[in-house]
Design a protein that fits this description.
disordered N terminus; paralog of FGE (formylglycine-generating enzyme); 312 residues; globular; alpha+beta; four-stranded mixed sheet
Length: 312
């Protein structure tokens, strides 16, 4: 991997220029969809130093009048049999449980909340007052893509994000900082501390934290691990496509049809990277660079955000 201290790494405004190179992508030691571990390479690219914040997104909405997917009226044709009064805009909101639950049933801690949106993260009575520097959430793929286009940027590929999240560190380490999830007993990213999903053991448990609450990696990037999952440009497949598969040098994979077929839905899924504040060793050990998660393009939640990239 390219040395993180290389003078080729430059910073302009709030973006960082990464020199690109080869790196070990994926893992054979954790979840099946991270397999197979393989060598990947990326060209030089610019990437945002931090996730897009509420302040950033508000500027975009103010200038363009953009309405997010979570704020749009639902089409009755897409929800046959559903009473019209139930077809109201909203999004998925995390809600801690009162005690231990079956971790195989995500519905125990996720609820559909009418009126939840980027402006109202927990529902219509909540707001982003005091959260201007928190990462924006409740953004679907189309929302992230629209912001990136407005900003003259794009979303990073999965390979670019993983390369950036590794930060030029130990290529063999499971985590961005080595093999110990909590070196010296201390968290290195905003992840769940305590027993998930009921034991609140740290500040901001169950919610986002201001960007940059934890130190930057050796590339100068913050929150590439933890805080919020982040959208990438790539379609999701249950394994990395290596060898004969049509994988471009920058890691972009055109798997639209496959993604839809594998999910059993007409809605394709994209790759999320980085893990979030809800990742916990006893439930979701995905606050690692190699970890990935599928997400339907039209879905939004309280723990999904994004950052942008740009070609050199």
């Amino acid at each position: 991997m390219t040395d993180a201290a290389s003078p080729a790494i430059a910073r302009v405004s709030d973006m960082v220029l990464l020199p690109g190179g080869s790196f070990p992508m994926g893992s054979d030691d954790f979840y099946p969809d991270e397999q197979p571990a393989h060598e990947a390479s990326v060209d030089a690219f610019w990437i945002d130093r931090r996730p897009v914040t509420n302040e950033d997104f508000e500027r975009f909405v103010t200038e363009t009048g953009y309405v997010t997917v979570a704020e749009r009226a639902l089409d009755p044709a897409e929800f046959p049999g559903t009473p019209v009064e139930d077809l109201v805009p909203g999004s998925l909101v995390f809600t801690p449980t009162s005690g231990p639950v079956d971790l195989r049933d995500w519905r125990q801690w996720w609820r559909w909340q009418p009126g939840a949106s980027w402006r109202h993260p927990e529902g219509p009575e909540s707001s982003i007052e005091g959260r201007s520097q928190h990462p924006v959430v409740h953004v679907a793929f189309a929302d992230a893509d629209a912001y990136a286009t407005w900003a003259g940027k794009r979303l990073p590929t999965e390979a670019e994000f993983e390369y950036a999240a590794r930060g030029g560190g130990d290529p063999g380490g499971a985590f961005a900082w080595g093999d110990d999830p909590f070196p010296s007993g201390e968290p290195r990213a905003h992840t769940w501390i305590g027993r998930f999903p009921y034991e609140i053991g740290a500040a901001y448990a169950g919610t986002t934290a201001p960007v940059g609450s934890f130190p930057a990696n050796d590339f100068g990037l913050v929150d590439t691990i933890g805080n919020v999952w982040e959208w990438t440009a790539d379609y999701y497949s249950p394994r990395h496509h290596v060898g004969g598969a049509p994988v471009a040098r920058d890691g972009r994979i055109d798997l639209l049809a496959a993604s839809s077929a594998e999910s059993g839905s007409r809605m394709p899924r994209r790759v999320l990277k980085g893990g979030s504040h809800l990742c916990s060793p006893d439930y979701c050990l995905r606050f690692r660079p190699a970890a990935r998660s599928p997400q339907a393009e039209d879905s939004s939640t309280t723990h999904i955000g994004f950052r942008c990239a740009r070609d050199v």
